[in-house]
Specification:
about 25% helix, globular, disordered N terminus, about 270 residues
């Protein structure tokens, strides 16, 4: 059994085979983040959310995404969220020059894969985040590619895969933001790599297969979770609905909800 490192939290998971490492990498480069239905999105986010209740690809995407439950606003929630925005702004300010991020130990995740948004990840911070929350130490910095490098747009915080919603709420109020987790990944058997793509996709995070039984019946390998819990924050946004948005392609943030699996090289 080979232990594969979770590329964002630094957590090691018991998956076998080097091919699984590439599976995880490609999954992260292609994950659809926006699957919340309009009625489940805070008022500040409405009009910016992608509906997952429809048929076809959007319905399939919903089967591969777990979102925390939107909670009623409690006293102090907005103040806590505002404080986190301020803390994140301070934490990421030194990294407007992406060279500084690289020098401080952040690594570009999948730099060879064309993406709208790139995660620069510090695995040590990911490991620390499993034990405690420190807004000054985001697991990943979020950048857009530019003609001469990268432009900083936000940050990503993480938590362990089995964190409860109460624990996540202690970190970021669930009335303001929704953490997400990628689930129900079926790795295609050899020779069926094309089934990751298109509206009739069977495998991967856009596929119709979302259960262990169906995956095994199709000859695939099932992974109930990819990575732990994650939440993105875009503190430079002036519109509040975009600061914690889960669907913000129109703002230049990449949720991969319309992307196929780029550079898929499944063994």
């Amino acid at each position: 059994m080979e232990h594969i490192k979770d590329s964002f939290t630094g957590q090691y998971c018991p998956h076998s085979g080097a091919g699984v490492l590439f599976l995880v990498s490609m999954a992260m480069a292609s994950i659809p983040h926006a699957v919340a239905s309009q009625q489940d999105v805070p008022p500040s986010h409405r009009g910016n959310a992608t509906t997952a209740s429809g048929e076809g690809e959007m319905g399939q995407m919903a089967a591969h995404m777990s979102l925390t439950t939107l909670r009623p606003v409690s006293a102090g929630d907005q103040q806590r969220a505002d404080a986190l925005v301020r803390a994140a702004t301070v934490a990421i300010a030194p990294y407007k020059d992406y060279h500084k991020a690289l020098a401080d130990g952040y690594e570009i995740f999948l730099p060879e894969v064309a993406q709208t948004q790139y995660h620069f990840t510090k695995y040590e911070y990911g490991r620390q985040a499993r034990l405690r929350f420190d807004p000054s130490k985001p697991t990943s910095l979020l950048y857009k590619k530019t003609a001469d490098g990268y432009e900083l747009v936000g940050a990503m915080y993480s938590d362990r895969v089995d964190a409860t919603e109460d624990e996540l709420n202690e970190r970021v109020p669930l009335s303001i933001a929704r953490w997400h987790q990628h689930i129900n990944f079926c790795k295609a058997p050899a020779g069926q790599q094309t089934s990751y793509f298109g509206p009739a996709a069977k495998f991967g995070l856009r596929g119709s297969i979302a259960t262990k039984d169906a995956c095994e019946a199709a000859g695939g390998t099932f992974y109930p979770h990819l990575f732990g819990w994650m939440v993105h924050i875009y503190p430079y946004e002036t519109d509040p609905k975009n600061i914690w948005s889960t669907n913000d392609d129109d703002q230049g943030h990449d949720n991969m909800d319309h992307a196929a699996m780029p550079a898929m090289k499944m063994p």
